[in-house]
Prior knowledge:
Blueprint: H1 3-6, E1 17-22, H2 26-38, E2 43-46, H3 55-58, E3 65-69, H4 79-84, E4 91-93, H5 94-107, E5 114-115, E6 120-126, E7 131-136, E8 141-149, E9 171-174, E10 188-192, H6 196-205, E11 211-216, E12 222-224, H7 232-240, H8 242-251, H9 270-283, H10 286-291, H11 301-318, H12 322-328, E13 339-341, H13 344-347, E14 353-357, E15 363-366, E16 370-373, E17 378-380, E18 383-386, E19 401-403, H14 410-413, E20 432-434, E21 440-441, H15 445-465, E22 470-473, H16 475-490, E23 515-516, H17 520-532, E24 538-541, H18 545-550
Bound molecules: flavin-adenine dinucleotide (FAD) and ligand NA7.
Amino acid sequence: xxxxxxxxxxxxxxxxxxxxxxxxxxxxxYMLRKLRDEMGLKVRVFxxxxxIGGTWFWNRYPGALSDTETYLYCYxxxxxxxxxxxxxxxxxxxxxxxxxxxHVADRFDLxxxxxxxxxxxxxxxxxxxxxxxxxxxxxxxFTARYLVTALGLLSATNVPKIKGRExxxxxxxHTGNWPANVSFEGKRVGVIGTGSTGIQVxxxxxxxxxxxxxxxxxxxxxxxxxxxxxxxxxVAEIKRNYDQIWADAKKSMVAFGFKESTVPxxxxxxxxxxxxxxxxxxxxGGFRFMFETFGDIAVDPAANEAAAAFxxxxxxxxxxxxxxxxxxxxHDVYAKRPLCDSGYYATYNRDNVxxxxxxxxxxxxxxxxxxxxxxxxxxxxxMIIFATGFDAVDGNxxxxxxxxxxxxxxxxxxxxxxxxxxxxxxxxxxxxxxILGPNGPFTNLPPSIETQVEFVYELIDHAERAGARxxxxxxxxxxxxxxxxxxxxxxxxxxxxxxWIFGANIPGKKNTVLFYIAGLGAYRxxxxxxxxxxxxxxxxxxxxxxxxAAGR
Length: 552
Ligand code: FAD
Ligand code: NA7
């Protein structure tokens, strides 16, 4: 038994596990490592997937690529892991991210505590016994004192309810649940959706398919990703400087590894502004374009319009057919998750690619042969790809039977809006800790995940040392955090664009604030303040000696 366990004197209820973690992606795997190896807890991770890796297990569609630069799309917690990781491309493809996570699982011997192919169907907090009771889709049930939900924020797939979908005689796939060995050769393929995923899949498969029809609801602002080889000297330099790189990233706003600009776009001459945008366009990277060029693109309408106009001018230059260019050109605010691509707009210059604007000409139904639009045209297809995104952030929470104190369901608790205290806990759900829950930071995610896992670890440690039976956020702290997140979001242009960042992509979903947009540095400062103030906003409850003694 590790020294970590021995130092906590309070008798604990007898449970199958000290902690159950749901989800074996970046978040769940690191949480397992911390709780098992550093605190000595008995832990089991469950995932409905057939492999570890979360997002990168599921999203195997062609062209899937992280648009965080490779050297920052990884864990930072282990220096040697960073030194040993060989990479040579600026951005990392999905299969390589999965390889990396597989390596992490082996290196830290994580697999022995991960149960795959097992969905959690219910998790109920049992107040009398101070524990979580968890049921799986394999008919098992387990108890644990702590529940960590690392369910993923872009994981619950959104398949739109389009009339006739079941009648389609060809193949149909959602990008977030992509099977092995899909072949495109000689096929007429339709892609619905042009977000980050749609852009990647469209650009990647266009040269492989016989014909591609893109069904676009909203035109998008996208800039080149700028992928390519990283010279070995640069990799060596990154490895030498890793400590500083992470320290800087964790103090920054979006944690994408560059210095965010503080220069207002309208404070420089038109010539300088265009030169700055052009430089960013040539270098590549969506977050770079939005945050490294000028400091106010996401907040000042004039700055935003300048950036948007620059991208529009590029579309006009790249796309040869004026009508296609017109359809591809956005006119709304540039305030969705910034996108980048490997030749997206130019793909529409190919003879085998057609664009259908489904806002002007909506999809009426899916037929056995393809997709019929309102103009009466039946687009004949062999395959339909739904690149239609996710029920983001709370989607996986509301899809299983999750109940806190007094049997309250998460849907009841989040009736007005998904809420949390600091993105990691929610009131009335004692001893439950979320990784990337609602109102967490909006950044390159691995460092935010690590930040949350480490905070949760310390909070559990704090509760254990105090001999508490449970720890939970107060309602007041949660309400205050929601108000803070709203205030921060309202000071930006992000709420003005309709996207998953505010739940606007799902029909019937309330449009609410789902992120803390002040950045990772600010977020880490808040967490440090909360901790230094004796975990302000959290309530520790004393052990129920009788219940503890009674055990299971
Ligand atoms: P996930 O990796 O989503 O893992 C959650 C796991 O929980 C899943 O395996 C799921 O099966 C499991 N699960 C959920 N509910 C249950 C249940 N009831 N029972 C059992 N198992 C369950 N982020 C970036 O920072 N940069 C990027 O460039 C980037 N690119 C992305 C590209 C795509 C296509 C997608 C979809 C996401 C991207 N992301 C990116 C976000 C990405 O999701 C995170 O970076 C990160 O992988 C999240 O890790 P996680 O462990 O929190 O969740
Ligand atoms: P997104 O960004 O939500 O994009 C989904 C796309 O699908 C988007 O273009 C939607 O149109 C479109 N969509 C959704 N429903 C429909 C229907 N019913 N009809 C037509 N088109 C539809 O998801 P992604 O997977 O691309 O990216 C999500 C994040 O994952 C991304 O930011 C990365 O972080 C990884 P819309 O634009 O809303 O009009």
